[in-house]
Amino acid sequence: MKKPILWVVATLVVLAGCGGEAAGPEPLASEGSRFGGAFADVEAYPVFASSEVVVGKNRFLVGLLDSNDAPIGSASIDMHIRFFDLSVSETDPVFERDMEFIETIPGERGLYKTHATFDNAGRWGAEVSVEGKGLDETVNASFDVAEEGTTPELGAKPPASRTPTADDVKNLSQISTDPDPDPSFYEMSIHEALAANEPFVVAFSTPKFCTSQVCGPTLDVVKRASRGHDDVTFIHVEIYKNLDDPSNLVPVKAVREWGLPSEPWVFVVDAAGRVVAKYEGTVSEAELKRDLAKL
Predict the structure, then answer these.
(1) Listing from the earlier edge strand, what are the strands of the sheet with 265-269?
(2) Cα 207-109-153 angle, rounded to 5 deg
(3) What is the Rg, in whole angstroms, of the alpha carbon atoms belonging to the chain?
(4) CA–CA distance, 126 with 35 (Å, rounded to integer)
(5) What pTM did the predictor assign?
(6) pLDDT tens-digit profile of 231-262?
(7) Residue 242 phi/psi, 5° resolution?
C-alpha cells in the first residue's frame, strides 16, 4: 500500500486535485468563539490548504468548497479575508487581504492565495467573504500559526541532498513518473547544484502517485518557466522510490531531509545557496518567472 508523505494533510489541496468528499474542517477556536463553530447553513466555506503556516511571511493558500464539500474555487468568485489574532481580539482584525485565484489543474480547479505575515504563534481567526456566481457569503474559521516550519526557511541554506540523476539509472522512468520528462531536469543532483554555486530550482513532485493530483500540472509549470533560463539549473526530485512497485512506495531520503509535510513543493535557490522562494501545492508561471528574473 502506498505510504503517503502527507504527514500533515492539507485537505483542500487534495480536494482541489481529485474532487473527493470531505466532512469539512473541525473548529479550532475555543467553544463559544465566533471562530469556533462548525459550518452550517452556508453555500460555501473555506479550507486552509497551507500545511505550513508560521510566524513571519507566508504564502497563504485557501480553497473554497460548496455545501456538498465539492471544490468550487473560480476566477469568477472573489475572496477577501480579515485576519484576527485570537489571543488579542475577536473583533479587531490585525490585517486583511484580497485573495488571488490561481489554477491548480488548468480549466478545472484552483486555490486562492495571498501573502500573509503573522507576528505571533497560536490560534488565529479568519473572516472569509466570497462573492460571485450567485454567492454572497461571509463565514468564520480558525487555524494555527506555528513558531517555525519543517521546510527550509527563506534565506537559509537547504540540505545538500544527494538526489539521483540520469547517470545513476538506465532509464529516467526509474527516477521519475513524469510521462514526458525533460532530460535536463535529471542532469544534476541537489548536492551538485549547491556545490556549483549557481542558482537552481527544485521541484519535489510525483506526477503518477500524487495525493493532491496537482504534481503533474505544477511540474509542467516549472518546465515551461525554465525555457530561456539556461543560466539556472532545474531539478525534478521524484517523491518516492520503488516506482516499479506501487504497493511498496517509500519517500526518498530528500523528502525527510527537506522536511516536506505535503506534495508538491517548489524551491528557488540563489547562487549563494540560499532559499529565496518556496511554493507548496502549486505555483503560477508568473510567480516563478518573477523569482527567476531576480536571480
Answers:
(1) 233-238, 200-205, 265-269, 275-280
(2) 60
(3) 19
(4) 8
(5) 0.87
(6) 999 999 999 999 999 999 999 999 999 999 99
(7) 65, 45
